[in-house]
Amino acid sequence: MSSLQSFIAVSTSTANDLRHLFRLNGQKAPPSTQPYFPRISCCFVSEDTQKSAPSISTGNRLLSAKSEDLIEREKRVLMGTYVRAPVVLVRGKGCKLYDVDGMEYVDMAAGIAVNSLGYGDGEWVKAVAEQAKSLAHVSNVYYSEPQVILAEHLVEYSFADRVFFTNSGTEANEAAIKFARKFQKVSCDSDTHATEFVSFSNSFHGRTMGALALTSKENYRLPFEPVMPGAKFVKYGDIDGAKKAIVPGKTAAVFVEPIQGEGGIHSATKEFLQTLRTACDDAGALLIFDEVQCGLGRTGYLWAHEPYGIVPDIMTLAKPLAGGLPIGVALTTEKVASAISYGDHGSTFAGSPLVCHAALTVLKRIKDPSFLSAVTNKGLYFKELLTHKLGANSHVKEVRGLGLIIGIDLDVLASPLVDACRALGLLVLTAGKGNVVRLVPPLIISEEELKQAADIIERCLPALDADSVQ
Ligand code: PMP
């Protein structure tokens, strides 16, 4: 059965089920035996595909009064920075999300690679509730035990000797920038120490003025220039270009994602990372791995750099560590940490007992070898299934990734497919230039749910054609 046939077969009933959800703008409702792609012009986009200031259109979708009201209220009071899908989510359980109208979604977005233990995990909820009851926040001018225990665990399981907590991935990278600058200042005798940074095409490191300077996409940077000066971009994977760009006395550090998430699920080669390591060592520069999206079990390894056997001087983490609470970390070697003095950096909220206690639950679960091997096996199963189901479609160029960070590379924009999937109860993200479907589900997802997701994507593939002929 072709993908179009299977779509028609399945969508016969689904279109009926969905009928109540869509207003047909004067059009006749399609006969229930026809495949029906509601035209929803807004998609659930990643940071990487958000346009500057489009108005949010709900297309033909008939929103419930509750949804419509909230969406209207949001428009009036929130800064218009997010292009949101017209879905008001109210609840989650396991790998499923539920909207205000009771519609169930299989969640392959996980809050953008955040909710690794899914929603409502018993152990996590208990840890948060207990800590909230006893002590949620204290200033970093005092000590608190969960922060120290979490740091001890992170040090024990990684290359690092020292830990600095932040509240987000961007902040972790901002801390890494400062640590690299201070390291160079302290380790260089002359007044003119290395202050520049190298990062790569398709990179995403955040949106504050330092991290933004290292984020490749011009749409994000140009409106806010001047950002931090001294950032150089090299093509991701370009070994000769990287060697030339890393200059003794000039390059303070090199920022690289071992697997790029926002950029479209691109994995570094071992040769590329090894070249960066050697060039940094030769130049006295630091090598910084941004594992904000790809780290902490997502690839089936606790650290995405593990299978490469190459170790950084600094690694940044964030998204999944506290199971949905805001956290970021810059992990460093003693060599880097020794350059940092009291008062060099700080944060009011970072490393709070509440967040660190929640993170301990997550880290304990994720680092378990059986949890990690399950991620590997589920990733292999899912990639094979997707390749089998989607590979013959002319729009699908490649299914790639490692563990449960998977990209479906298309020769067209992915948004019609994303919209169609959502209408059938599947949440997926885009990446790259909007041409990649990004799948980063909770790491606890079952094979059955992965099959459900693959089936829906297969059924929705004709949306890529349907959109272009309308
Ligand atoms: N680095 C990478 C690799 C990311 O994917 C992201 C977020 N998508 C960030 C940094 C920024 O993290 P945050 O949004 O938590 O500030």
Automatic annotation (TrEMBL):
Compartment(s): Mitochondrion
Keyword field contains Transport: no
Cofactor(s) required, per the database record: pyridoxal 5'-phosphate
Reactions catalysed: glyoxylate + L-alanine = glycine + pyruvate
One BP term from GO: L-arginine biosynthetic process
Keyword Cell inner membrane: no
PROSITE patterns: AA_TRANSFER_CLASS_3
Entry-linked CDD domains: OAT_like
Pathway linked to the protein: Amino-acid biosynthesis; L-arginine biosynthesis; N(2)-acetyl-L-ornithine from L-glutamate: step 4/4
Domain of life: Eukaryota
UniProtKB keywords: Amino-acid biosynthesis, Aminotransferase, Pyridoxal phosphate, Transferase
GO molecular function, one term: alanine-glyoxylate transaminase activity
InterPro entries: AcOrn/SuccOrn_fam, Aminotrans_3, Aminotrans_3_PPA_site, Class-III_PLP-dep_AT, PyrdxlP-dep_Trfase, PyrdxlP-dep_Trfase_major, PyrdxlP-dep_Trfase_small
SUPFAM superfamilies the record matches: PLP-dependent transferases
NCBIfam families: argD, PRK01278.1
PANTHER family for this protein: ACETYLORNITHINE AMINOTRANSFERASE, MITOCHONDRIAL, AMINOTRANSFERASE CLASS III
HAMAP family linked: ArgD_aminotrans_3 (MF_01107)
This protein's name: Acetylornithine transaminase
